[in-house]
Structures are given as structure tokens and as C-alpha cells.
Amino acid sequence: MLDLIIPSVMTMMTAATPLIFAATGELICEKSGVLNLGVEGMMLVGAVFGFIGATVTGDPYMGLVIGAFSGIMASLIFAILTLLLVSNQVATGLALTIFGTGLSALVGANYVGETIDRIRPLYVPDAADGPSVAQLFFGHDPVVYLGLLVLLACAGFLSRSRWGMILRAVGDSDVSAHAIGYPVIRIRFAAVAFGGMMAGIGGAYLSLAYTPLWAENMSAGRGWIALALVVFASWRPIRVLFGAVLFGGITIVQLNAQAIGLGIPGAIMSMLPYLATIIVLVLISSNAMRIRLNAPACLAQPFRAER
Amino acid sequence: MKTLNRVAVALFATLLSFGVSTSASADKTKVGFIYIGPPGDHGWTYAHDQGRLQLEKELGSQVETTFVESVKEGGPDAERAIAKLAQTGHKLIFTTSFGYMEPTLKVAKRFPNVKFEHATGYKRADNVSTYSARFYEGRYVQGVIAGQVSKSGVIGYIASFPIPEVIRGINAFMLGAQTQNPNIKVKVVWVYTWYDPGKEADAAKVLMDQGADIITQHTDSTAALQAAADRGIHAFGQASDMIQFAPKNQLTANMNTWGPYYVARTKAVLDGSWKSQDTWHGMGEGMVVMAPFTNMSSEVAALAQKTYDDLRSGKLHAFSGPINDQSGKQVVAAGAVADDGMLAGMKFYVEGVDGELPK
Amino acid sequence: MLRLEPRSSHSVLAAWLAPLVALVMTFITGGLIFMAMGEDPAATLYIYFIQPLVSASGLSEVAVKAGPLVLIATGLSFGFRAGVWNIGAEGQYIFGAIVGSSLAVFFHESTNPVLLPSMLALGIAGGMIWAAVPALLKTRFNANEILVSLMLVYIAELLLVYLVHGPWRNPQGWGFPGTRTFPDAAVLPLFFVQHRLHWGLVLALAAPLVAWFLVAKTRFGFRVRLFGSAPLAARHAGVRSTRMIWMTLLIGGGLAGLAGVIEASGTIGQLMPSISPGYGFTAIIVAFLGRLHPLGILLAGIVIAVTYIGGENAQIVAGLPKAVTGLFQGVILFYLLAFDLLTRYRLVFSRASRPEHA
Fold first, then answer.
1. Which of A83, B79, C100, C171 places its Cα 20 to 30 Å from the Cα of B129?
2. How far apart are CA B226 and CA B237, in angstroms?
3. Distance from the C325 Cα atom to the nearest Cα atom in chain B, whole angstroms
4. pLDDT, tens only, B24-61
5. Which domain holds residue A75?
């Protein structure tokens, strides 16, 4: 049984990594008071440009950087519209998703069927040795470790650093923060851009490591799952980790169950991740107190200095 | 693509000057294709597009082709796209996915002078033919190879939807494998999609985690093959030769070869001999071709080649008796072969396949 | 220098101008994109936007495509006006189609004229049930309706797949997925046999008119608008947020479900693993493009339908890739949102550095 658990956990970690990046980025963005529903679009933009970058430069890590950068660019469209032009955040986020999906499909059309040198794990044991605890700890690819590092860094940033506190203040009461003298718009810009960068990396991970190829819509709804994860985690980074592994895990468990031979119809089992998300969402949200403690009070509300 | 653009621009210039859709230009016959996905998928649609390119190569002086990609099956899109091709003077239209069946028939009624060819369907009309390939013969060869090469005796099968075509494939694979290793195990995972690289990669990883040391798929992307190659596991390509994606790990691939059929049917339209028919060709007619046998010992390659040759010549039939279904009931007697009727509607697993067939 | 100054009241002129300006900007951007791709911009824009409208078959196809969009978007507009974000219209569409079509599946030989109207009614009910879930979870448990309704889309899709592969599969269908083709009594009749216009489209046209009446002339409509723009004032006026959430979600779900059963019985004629080319999501764009106003939605639905049809024409005639359509839709929305601010702010040339009082 151990033989199966270790590889399954490893597969779960790779499945969770894009979610960890996207959700952590969105968490920071939301903590500053901005709701960006365009995560799916940003992930696809990151995936396509990351893949093209890797094809052109021959280096998947360069591709990762390009993916991150393109995520930032995509998020800036959103930031300009919502922060400078005060447009509705929900609608703009949706527009970004639609635009990102279309743009990535268009740009990537010529790269379907291309191959790249994928991002490789740090340590690969001999096939004969079988799964081991060493592999569990050291056998992931660097981006997985990066994701965990970023997650921890964000947790520390939010709870212990001065700028983290300022970010939270901006999200909880933008008018007060402005009164004290903090540049609300600029801070939100930075938060949105960070969210974009993370979504871009998460998307690029899909096309550079998870399945080293480009296909239209390859994020397959992960951006939306990431949005759910932020709520699920009550806006606390460490809980994002649990949520991401849980969600990634359910998908894997469902496939494992099929392969073992449990007789539940595959279509029903495929529903499990989404059902689970709803159930957890309900459980978490029903604790209104907890929500109030952690949700940024000004979430999705535009900032008006003249108020 | 460039030629198509030049042709299209010239055509469009004509259209623009008349401001209305015209019928076919006097010289060339137009042949249209409706694709379910992008030609770049390197799988199902890619193979059809290769067929279209071969048609252009062989009959380019008399024929020009058009294709519409990623046409969705549900909703009004399919019928509209097919009708558009018919309206713009295409004389022969290939609709390359099962879900286009009803739309094809509806449009065919409106345009009795246009000929339609529907892939993998079962309904015909005076101007609608159906065609499919005996992919299962390729699966049989794959099974033979897998039975020999697998050390763990466990094969991972990534299946898409529980339709007869896919089930036939699983069964043929199993029967082939059983000739080499009667105790072979095939683990099947249903991903309920034809094309979702992330899910296919996940399925491959899960199967490998559960001990499969060979992966085969009835889905369209290269993701599973690449995931297998990452772990040094052997796998089979699907619908086209995917060797470039896994140079050290692809054993062979089922290659759907539609070109000769497309050329033949177009010729039939050109010389007026086209009739509605059902075509189910296999290796014998060259519709299913195996990619070169690579990454295996020369003995296994020779065995694979012999199996391939025997299937091609008709000496061997993939579903020859005795065959029992999962419950042990005999469905094909010793000395007989499964008839097309049983094959077309196959909804049972043969003995030895683990797990239940999804209802 | 140029400054943005808040208006004291929304400018109606700008509200109607904004979508037009957005369209024009989209044309210009599109032309630039086409040039970058090496195509003739004017010719390609013609294929995309004009050609679908110049022939009878083109117009009927636009209508067939626009119908479900307009219907769903009308339903969504109530919710969006009230600040209730129903992103799961796609799921409500599918579930409505499933529930409505169940009659056609079970009574597949019937010739009873009651069959069709019952199917439509059940379709509405089905869509409402699916929308009731996010409504319940939001009002009882404070769960975000965006995410719940979205997750339900995936579940509805999988449910449809399960049904057409399994219990509802056509027994004479050689094992292929899909129900039997619906009996004639269950199919919406065509009123123009040449083209594909069926009576369901009449419903789709009527919906915005009814909605416009509701919103502009009834107290309910007033409450919806109040609730969306000034929730505190609304509460003081006695509008209960729970009831508002329920009503707007049910309307959105009901209309989406109706669109689903209409498509299944009118355009497709059976249930298959996939019955929507993304109508539920595109309808969101239509709703916004139409400024959440029923008549605007009607026009916006037509515009978006034209981009789909035009995109296909472009593939057939000019070999352009399909992805440009999605790009256009996103661009239209961006421009719209950008110009939207002109309804709330004025562009002012000013040398003063202090903001004037509004």
C-alpha cells in the first residue's frame, strides 16, 4: 500500500501546485480589497506565453519567467480598468477571463503539437528502487518547492510585516488607509499585479511541467477552483495549501478508484471535486464570524478618494 | 495553409464584387471538411487533416479543399457550418465526428445534390455515406506487443467514453495481449473526454502508480505518452505517429490513414459514380496503419510485424473464437469470428478485463 | 490637464453611446489585428460583421444563435442589476434541458399536444431548481453565489453525460451516447421551413419585451434596481434582501432552463453529451453589452450572434482561425467597461488642482 501512497501524494502535489500559485496570488489581491475573477484567463495567458517562450529560447525556466511576466501584463488591463477607470470589478474580471481565453487560443494556435524540454524533478530514483521517502521529499520539480516557499512567504508577509499590515488595512478600510496617507490605488495595483504574476506562473507550470504541451483551454477551470480556494481558506495562506492538495487529491483519488475497479460510474465520480468544493464552501461560509474576521471588508468595492 | 489562403483571397475577391454567395467556381470541385478539434491536436483531427492534404496533393488540379475546425457538436453550430459549406458550392463534405450525425442528415435533406460522408456514424441517406476504420485491429497488435513487453503484467488503458468503438478497442487489446500472456491485467480508467491533456496525464500517472508498466490510450493528446516517457515507461501513440514526443518510449501507434479513402470518394464524385454506402475498412485496405515498431527487441518487433501482416492479409481476425464475455458466457464459438453486427454494438468486456463497464 | 469629475446623475446619452463607441473601437482594433495577420482589414471586417446580415439564411442563422443568448441574458440581467452574480447560467440551461426533455424521453411515442408545453414548463422548473441551490446556500449559509453556481455548471454537464451514456441512451443507437430523437409532438414547430426558425425564438423575442415592462413599469422592477444601486436605502424601503436574492436567481435560472429545453427540442431534437456551445457564459457578455436593459440585450444578442456566424464564415471563406471570435468578444467587453465610466464621470479640461464640488 505504501507503494501506492507515496506516488499518489507526489502526483497530488503536482496537481496542487498550479492551484497553490493562482490561489495565493488571488488571496493577496483580494486582501487589498480587489476581486479579480480573471484568474482563468491569466493562467491561460501565462501558459501560452510561457510555452512559446520555452519553445523559442529552448529553456523552460525562461518560459516560466515569460509566463509570469505575461500574467502581470494581463492583470494590468484589469487594474487599469477597475482602479483607474473605476469599472465594475466582477464584469471586468469576467471580461479578462474571456479575453485571455481567446487571446491564448489565437496566439497558441501555431504551437499546438510542439514539444519542449520540460522542467524536470530534482531527484529521480532508479526505476528499480521503487518509491521512497527520500523521493517524497526531494523528488519534486523545483516549481513545486517554489510554490510552497511563496505560500509561506505570503503567510509571513501578511501576518508579520509592516507592509502586510498596510495591505490588510487597505482591504479592510480603504478610506481610513487613505486618510492616514497610504497610497491606496498604488498598493492595489501592486497587489493585482502580484496576483497576475502568480496566476501566470501557475498557468506556465501547466504547459511547462504538468503536461509539456500547449492546448486551448488547458487550464480546464483551475482558475475558478483557485477562486473558490481563497474563500475556502478564509483568506489564510496556509489553508490554501490544504485546499489545493485536497482538490488536486480528489481528482487523483477518483482516477485511482476507477483503476482499482470500484464500480461507480466515472461521470459521477468526476463530479466529486466540484461537489466537494461546494460542500466545503458552505461549511466555511456558514461561519459568518470567521468570514467577517478574515474577509477584506472592502472586497470588490471601488475606492473613491472624495468620499 | 498558404495555398488555401491564396485561393480563399481570390475567391473572396470574387464574392465581394458580387456581394452575395456564389456557387462553385467553374473549374475546381470543392470538397469541405468539418473538424471536431484543431488540426494541430496531433491526434484524431490531425489524421483527418493529413487525409485532406493527401487529397490536395493527388487531385489538386481538379479539387480545392476547405475546412472548418473545432465545430461544436451540441447546439446549432454543426448544422450551420455544414450548411454553409453546402451553400458555398462544396460538392462533397466530410463530417468527421459521431456527434455530427443528425446535423449532417438534416443538411443533406436540404441539399440533395451535395454528397456527404459521415465518419463513425450509422445512419445513411441517398446522399449520405458513413465510413469508419477498424481501429481495433491496431489495438490487437498493440496488445500482442504489450503482452510480450510488459514485465509487471499490468497494462494501463486510458479510455474516453464507453461507446462500442472504445470498448472494441479494449477487448481487442486484451485478446491480443492474452495470446502472449494469459494472465495479463488491463486496468481501465474512463476520463470522459476525447481531449484534455491535464486529465490524460493524471490518468497515466495514476495507472503507473498502480503498477502499469505500459500505457495505451483512446484519447487524443500526447500528454499521456509524454507522462509515461517521463517515468521511462513504454506507451502507444494514438491516431497518428507520436514518436517525436517520446522517441525512446513509443512502441508503435495506431495511425488513422484516411487519405486513400478521401481520394477514392472524391474521384467517385468527379466521375459521377458516387453512391451511398457504409465503409468499414481496416488494415487490409490500408485505413489502419501501424507506426514503425520501435523501442522493443527484434523478436518482439518481428512478432508484431507478423501479426500486422496476418491481419492485413486476412489470415488473422482480431475477434476469432472462442471468446467469452466477463461473466464467462461464450459469445464467439471456437473457429468462428465475431460478425460486424456484434462488433458494431459491442457493450461487454471480454473475460479477463477487470472492473465493470460503466452503464 | 484632463480630469475625471463625477457627474451628479448618470448620463443617459453616454449610457447608450458607450456600447456604440465600444463597437467602433472594437472594429478598429479588429482591423489592426487582421492587418497584423496579413489579411485585408476591410474585407475581413465585412465577412465578420456585415455578411451574416445580408442574406436570408444568414439572418435566420443569426436569429437561431441569438435566441438562447437573449433569453438567458434577460434572466441574468435581473440578478446583475441586484448585485447577485449568477455565473452558472450554463448549468441551469443544461439542467432545464434535462428536466424538460425527460418527458420526450419517457413518452417517446406520444402524439399528445400537451407534451410540448409541459416540456417547456418543466424546463423552466428545472432551471429554477438548479438556481435555487446557490440561492439557498447564499441566504442560509452566506456562500458566494458566483462559486456555487459555477461548480454546479460542471456538475450539470457531467450529469448530462451520465444520462445520455447510461439510463437515457437510445437502445437502438448502437451503444452511442444520446437519447432517441424526440417525437414530433415534442419538437418546436418551424414557422419558416426553409430556414431553421422555430417558435421558441418567438419566446426568446418576447422575453426582453416582458422584462422591459417588468423593470420599467412595475414595483418589482423598481425594487430590483434600488436593491442593486443602493442596498441600504432598499432595506429601509422594505426590500428584503433574501427575497430579492431568491427572486432574481430563480428568474435567471428559469429563463436559462427555458432556453435549454427550447434548444434541445427546437434546434437539436434530442439530448446529446453536449447541448450548448457555451451559451450560459456568452449570455453574460450579452447582458453587460446590453447595459442590463432588455432592449439593449436584444441588440447585444444580435451583435454577438453575428460575431459567431461571421467567425465561422471567416474560417470557411478566408481561412481565419476560430480563436479570433473569442478575442473579439473579450475586446468588446473591455472597451465597453472602459467607456462605461463616461456615464458616471465627465472628462474635464481644468487648470485647477483642487477637485470641484459635484
1. C171
2. 10
3. 12
4. 445 789 999 999 887 877 788 999 999 999 999 999 89
5. 2-108+141-294
